[in-house]
Amino acid sequence: MKDFKVGIIQLPAKGDKKENLKTMEEYVTLVKKEGADVVCLPEMWNCPYQNSYFKKFAEEDFGETYEKMSQVAKENKVSLIGGSIPIKSGDKIYNRSYVFDKAGREIYRYSKINLFDIEGYKESDTISGGKSLGVFETEYGTFGLAICFDLRFPELFQTFRDYGAEVIFVPSTFMKKTGEVHFHLLNRARAVDTQCYVVSPAIARDYDLSKNAYAHSLIVDPSGKIEVDLGEDKNYAVLKLEANKVKREREKLPLEVSRKNRKL
After folding, report:
1. Mapping DSSP to helix (H, G, I), strand (E, B) and coil, where does residue 1 land?
2. Which helix (H) or strand (E) element contains residue 137?
3. What is the pLDDT of residue 262?
4. What is the pLDDT of residue 263?
5. SS3 for 257?
6. Looking at 32, 68, 112, 234, which residue is catalytic?
7. Roughly how many angstroms between the first and final C-alpha of the chain, as a whole number?
8. pLDDT value, residue 68
9. What are phi and psi of 38, to 5 degrees?
10. Residue 145 and residue 190: Cα distance in Å, rounded?
11. Running along the chain, 264 residues long, what does each successive block of 10 average in pLDDT?
């Protein structure tokens, strides 16, 4: 890993997809002007987080939103982690994230494995779970990518660490009730577990279709310190991620040495 600036964007998901695309483009341009090298969007940023909208807004692979993200990455010369969007594949819909390089080329994709099925709401009523997990390489280092509810499964994050990740992106849409008790806790825990930066842009809260969003997009350093918390409203931030912070934390607490030496 080498030092780079990451931009995170917190915007509300409106019922007008074209408005969402326009706002995304405006905000990527803003964070680029502040020096961002890598930009990450929230989960389901182009689509209100409701099963009915997943069906209504779902696109085929390489559709309108995909093309817009590719264009925005290329025009701004940024690496873009495209949050996630609903994607149709046959008779299924996936909660999928695409990653684009500075030339607008897709370099990685991930479909959310762990679906948000809780009392009173089931993402699986509409969304099908992905089956694979990995990391992707950029000019800045090795990155992991999870989505929202994946935060509750530490074994996934240990896999990222095993694969060499030093920064893990987690586009999210926590609801207010669960976010208040768990969002900061889980992001800090996963950062401490893996000794990675954890970057979790979330949907902003509004008084319309995103009124139940917890928001509070976070950047957490490898020691578990919260470096950025964007609150509730539409917002963005740019922060320099330092390779030496990852290195120092892993030297100070050599967890992998203990893993190799232990006998159960």
Report:
1. coil
2. strand 135-138
3. 84
4. 75
5. helix
6. 112
7. 33
8. 98
9. -125, 135
10. 13
11. 98 96 98 98 95 94 98 98 96 97 98 88 92 94 97 97 97 94 98 98 93 96 98 97 98 92 79
Structure tokens at 91: 């008779």
CA 14 and chain centroid, separation = 19
Is the CB of residue 46 less than 8 Å from the CB of residue 16? no
Clarify whether 40 is annotated catalytic. no
Measured in degrees and rounded to the nearest 5, phi and psi for residue 248 equal: -65, -40
- Residue 167 token pair: 């920064």
pLDDT value at residue 29: 98
Exposed/middle/buried for residue 132 (C-beta within 10 Å: 0-12, 13-18, 19+):
exposed
d(CA 64, CA 61): 9
Residues whose CB is less than 8 angstroms from the CB of residue 259 and which lie 6 or more positions away in sequence, other chains included: none
CATH architecture label of 4-261: 4-Layer Sandwich (3.60)
Beta strand pairing status for 127-128 and 92-100? parallel
CA distances from 122 to 36, 52, 107, 128, 208 (A): 36, 12, 30, 11, 21
43 is catalytic: yes
Catalytic site residue from 148, 166, 245, 249: 148
Query: CB within 8 A of 77, min separation 6: which ones?
Result: 32, 102
User: Is 148 an annotated catalytic residue?
Assistant: yes
